[in-house]
């Protein structure tokens, strides 16, 4: 029995047979894991389960009574039939095994924090999530995408969850689609028209009200990241960072969390926003700060970094950002636009300051240099950001 615990979800892989010879031991190990992790949700992965007897079903029922949000996934037809014939599918959600998809030899059309996107054929792409990403988090992204689509936000809709080796994947129907980054590189003369469309998608996102009963407040995530920086910063510095976050005006607009040209697809000349796993609600400053960091700030230090992260060169990336701010804050004077831009850039440095918490895979050397730069350039002026977001 192997297990993982991510984002409050305990995933346990069941193997072989569960019957009178080992059910008590399985029961003991399961509840040791529950006691150790205190999960909100439990997923029992039955992909390697060959048989489960009535005594094994009672173990599953006991777990369901303890953790109501318990699901069995990847059940073979034989295992599913056992749950179905005994009436357990009326008590607990049981999902049949997922279709297997191979991406060997497929073109990689994008990479992100959660996984890699491959082209399966001319009509479909598959996003393969990083190994260890729990199924419920993937299904949450699918659910968020569908809800955003209903709200009128242009986004790709998935139609199939699959397995790709040890990873989960989601198949999207995107006929003859390509990433926005690839399109800009291939057809630079279309930059101006696509820049308008890019701004429009971002504006649609930020002018659409999200349901706070479904989506979480982006401030909760930022405050958690700030707390995670306690091992790097002093208590006074942590308090200052919290004060900056909490001073941002409340909004119920959608916030994507990672907008850039590799997270948009071009289909029939229109842009579709993808990678909706971290969709929240709040003030657009939280999106704009991230866009400024990847589109503008990164290029000041290393233009190659901009290309690697968002798929286009630093100069057009900066133009995309500047055009977007002008387009999405129409009627503002040059002085007002400068104030908005300066505030966004300052907030971008705030996000830079908490990058070790946001990007947990960064090297120690990169974090060391980041913290040095933050103490030198950001903290001396950070207090000015408190209450500075007034647009």
CATH architectural label of the largest domain: Alpha-Beta Complex
For the biggest sheet, the summary is: 6 strands, mixed
CATH superfamily of the largest domain: Aminoglycoside phosphotransferase (APH), C-terminal lobe
Low-confidence stretches: none
Characterization of this structure:
It is a single chain. It is built from 14 helices and 16 strands. The termini are far apart. A 6-stranded mixed β-sheet has the order 6-10-11-9-8-7, with helices on one face. The model has no long low-confidence stretch (mean pLDDT 92). Helix 1 runs parallel beside helix 2. The chain has 3 domains: 2-97, Transcription Regulator spoIIAA (2-Layer Sandwich); 107-173, 2-Layer Sandwich (Phosphorylase Kinase, domain 1), CATH 3.30.200.20; 178-385, Aminoglycoside 3'-phosphotransferase, Chain: A, domain 2 (Alpha-Beta Complex). With 391 residues, it is of the alpha/beta class.
Which key features would you list for this structure?
Transcription Regulator spoIIAA, Phosphorylase Kinase, domain 1, 3 domains, 6-stranded mixed β-sheet, 5-stranded mixed β-sheet, 14 helices, 16 strands, 46% helix
Ordered list of secondary-structure elements with their pairings:
Elements: E1 2-6, E2 9-18, H1 23-37, E3 41-52, H2 54-66, E4 70-75, H3 77-85, E5 93-96, E6 99-100, E7 107-111, E8 115-119, E9 124-129, H4 135-150, E10 158-164, E11 167-173, E12 178-179, H5 180-186, H6 191-206, H7 218-228, H8 235-247, E13 253-255, E14 264-267, E15 270-273, E16 280-282, H9 285-301, H10 303-310, H11 314-328, H12 334-353, H13 355-358, H14 364-378
């Amino acid at each position: 029995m192997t297990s993982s615990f991510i984002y409050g979800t305990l995933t346990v892989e069941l193997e072989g047979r569960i019957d009178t010879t080992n059910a008590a031991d399985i029961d003991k190990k399961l509840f040791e894991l529950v006691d150790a992790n205190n999960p909100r949700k439990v997923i029992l992965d039955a992909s390697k389960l060959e048989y489960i007897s009535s005594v094994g079903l009672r173990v599953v029922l006991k777990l369901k009574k303890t953790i109501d949000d318990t699901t069995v996934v990847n059940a073979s037809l034989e295992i599913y039939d056992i749950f179905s014939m005994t009436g357990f599918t009326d008590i607990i959600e049981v999902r049949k095994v997922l279709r297997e998809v191979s991406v060997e030899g497929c073109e990689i059309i994008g990479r992100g924090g959660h996984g890699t996107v491959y082209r399966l054929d001319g009509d479909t792409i598959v996003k393969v999530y990083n190994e260890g990403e729990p199924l419920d988090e993937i299904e949450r992204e699918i659910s968020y995408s569908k809800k955003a689509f209903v709200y009128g936000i242009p986004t790709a809709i998935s139609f199939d969850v699959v397995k790709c080796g040890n990873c989960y994947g989601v198949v999207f129907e995107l006929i003859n689609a390509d990433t926005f980054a690839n399109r800009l590189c291939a057809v630079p003369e279309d930059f101006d028209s696509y820049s308008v469309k890019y701004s429009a998608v971002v504006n649609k996102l930020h002018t659409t009200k999200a349901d706070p009963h479904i989506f979480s407040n982006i401030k909760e995530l930022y405050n958690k990241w700030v707390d995670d920086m306690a091992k790097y910063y002093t208590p006074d510095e942590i308090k200052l960072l919290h004060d900056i976050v909490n001073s941002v005006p409340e909004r119920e607009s959608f916030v994507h969390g990672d907008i850039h040209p590799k997270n948009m697809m071009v289909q029939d000349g229109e842009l579709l926003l993808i990678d909706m796993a971290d969709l929240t609600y709040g003030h657009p400053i939280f999106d704009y700060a991230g866009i400024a960091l990847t589109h503008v700030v990164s290029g000041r230090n290393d233009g190659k970094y901009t290309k690697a992260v968002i798929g286009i060169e630093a100069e057009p990336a900066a133009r995309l950002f500047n055009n977007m701010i002008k387009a999405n804050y129409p009627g503002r004077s040059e002085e007002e636009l400068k104030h908005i831009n300066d505030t966004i850039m300052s907030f971008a440095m705030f996000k830079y300051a908490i990058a070790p918490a946001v990007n947990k895979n960064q090297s120690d050397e990169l974090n060391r240099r980041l913290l040095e730069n933050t103490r030198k350039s950001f903290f001396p002026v950070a207090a000015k950001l408190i209450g500075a977001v007034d647009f």
